[in-house]
């Protein structure tokens, strides 16, 4: 099930998870357009693929604007003759609680993740439809988008929005044979390196040691390479029947996320008035839903002191 002959774009692939996706797609035979805001980082990423015998070119530009999306598709077609696979991975964080979040914090994160995903998928899907290519759209979500997270209003909105768009694109692109899926990764990268809860795992990884089983198994937290196989699989012909899904991956763990469904349904003739809700809301809906990610307690030997800043 090789990707030989296929051409991929991976946004934000200068480092971290995006670089791992690009390297794995190239290892499976695809030619890759590397994209990042930083030209030197993008060029270095290209070099790792070319040095390993693969094919890659760099486009240094920020995703978000339509011009960048068009330039990425043009680079794939001009350098490698076609486009089969798009991975929308570029991302930034501007974390703070709602009451401290500025307009700029909100717009920056929405611009890169949500708008960047919209504009690049629109450009890629338009090209794939016009050229009758049964392409692969792989968008990167986050557990925060699925469950919410303290201090991440902007990021939660963007990542939940991405999964919402993926469901819609799976419907709209089905007839053209183009699949659209969301990958929900967890891995040790610059984005997670400073989270105290993951410190013992990041420490082991940095020392070139395997991460403790608690992280890999119980938390589904591992390296970027642990996530890359799923992206390459979804890009392959074998995954032609997989579309509209949100798939979690990290460490030793693979998960299929559910899409929201009503969990309680109640009817009242004449409708649910204010008075009727006072009377019957609790019985009608039953147990309320939880929010936020659920992290098990860290075993004592994996706890690290909190940072002193
Ligand atoms: N690391 C995790 O555990 C985790 C968990 C859930 C989701 N994610 C998502 O995975 C993706 C990659 O995260 P990572 O952990 O590798 O982060 P990272 O910060 O290591 O890498 C992100 C890359 O995107 C680039 N980038 C930022 N803005 C860009 C823009 N406008 N255009 C092009 N490139 C841009 C950065 O320069 C960087 O190279 C992000 O979408 C992130 O939200 C990561």
Characterise this structure.
The protein is of the alpha/beta class. The chain has a domain of 215 residues: NAD(P)-binding Rossmann-like Domain (Rossmann fold). The chain is 43% helix and 13% strand. The chain has ten helices and eight strands. An eight-stranded mixed beta sheet has the order 3-2-1-4-5-6-7-8, sandwiched between helices. Helix 1 links the parallel strand 1 and strand 2. Helix 1 crosses helix 9 and helix 4 packs parallel to helix 6. The longest helix is centred in the middle third of the chain and has 28 residues. The protein starts with 6 loop residues before the first strand and ends in a 24-residue tail after the last helix. 42% of the residues are buried. The mean pLDDT is 96. Nicotinamide-adenine-dinucleotide (NAD) binds next to helix 1, strand 2 and helix 4. Nicotinamide-adenine-dinucleotide binds next to helix 1, strand 2 and helix 4.
Write a brief structural summary.
The chain has 309 residues and is an alpha/beta fold.
Short key terms for the protein model shown above:
single chain; alpha/beta; Rossmann fold; 8-stranded mixed sheet; 8 strands; binds nicotinamide-adenine-dinucleotide
Topology:
Layout: E1 7-10, H1 16-27, E2 31-36, H2 39-51, E3 56-60, H3 66-80, E4 85-88, H4 103-130, E5 136-140, H5 143-147, H6 153-173, E6 179-185, H7 199-206, H8 213-219, H9 224-235, E7 246-250, E8 253-256, H10 274-285
Helix pairs in contact: 1-9, 3-4, 4-6
Nicotinamide-adenine-dinucleotide binds near residues 89, 90, 140 and 142.
Residues in helix, %: 40-55%
Bound small molecules, by name, code or SMILES, are: nicotinamide-adenine-dinucleotide
CATH superfamily of the domain at 7-187 and 223-256: NAD(P)-binding Rossmann-like Domain
Strand order of the largest sheet: 3-2-1-4-5-6-7-8
Class of secondary structure makeup? alpha/beta
């Amino acid at each position: 099930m090789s990707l030989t002959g296929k051409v991929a774009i991976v946004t934000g692939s200068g480092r971290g998870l995006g670089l791992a996706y690009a390297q794995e797609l190239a290892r499976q035979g695809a030619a890759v357009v590397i994209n990042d805001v930083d030209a030197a980082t993008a060029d270095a990423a290209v070099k790792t693929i070319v040095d390993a015998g693969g094919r890659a070119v760099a486009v240094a530009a920020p995703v978000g604007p339509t011009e960048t999306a068009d330039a990425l598709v043009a680079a794939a077609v001009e350098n490698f003759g076609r486009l089969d696979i798009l991975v929308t991975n570029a991302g930034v964080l501007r974390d703070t609680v709602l009451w401290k979040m500025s307009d700029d914090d909100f717009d920056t994160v929405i611009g890169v993740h949500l708008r960047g995903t919209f504009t690049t998928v629109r450009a890629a899907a338009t090209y794939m439809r016009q050229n009758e290519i049964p392409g692969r759209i792989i968008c990167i979500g986050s557990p925060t988008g699925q469950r919410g997270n303290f201090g991440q209003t902007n990021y939660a909105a963007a990542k939940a929005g991405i999964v919402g768009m993926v469901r819609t694109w799976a419907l709209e692109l089905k007839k053209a044979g183009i699949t659209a899926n969301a990958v929900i990764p967890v891995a040790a990268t610059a984005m997670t390196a400073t989270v105290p809860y993951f410190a013992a795992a990041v420490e082991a990884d940095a020392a070139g040691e395997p991460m403790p089983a608690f992280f890999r198994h119980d938390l589904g937290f591992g390296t970027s390479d642990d996530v890359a196989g799923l992206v390459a699989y979804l890009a392959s012909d074998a995954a032609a029947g997989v579309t509209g899904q949100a798939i979690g991956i990290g460490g030793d763990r693979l998960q299929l996320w559910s899409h929201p469904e009503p969990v309680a349904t109640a009817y009242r003739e004449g409708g649910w008035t204010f008075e009727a809700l006072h009377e019957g809301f609790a019985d009608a809906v039953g147990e309320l839903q939880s929010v936020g990610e659920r992290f098990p307690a860290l075993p004592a030997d994996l706890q690290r002191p909190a940072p002193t800043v």
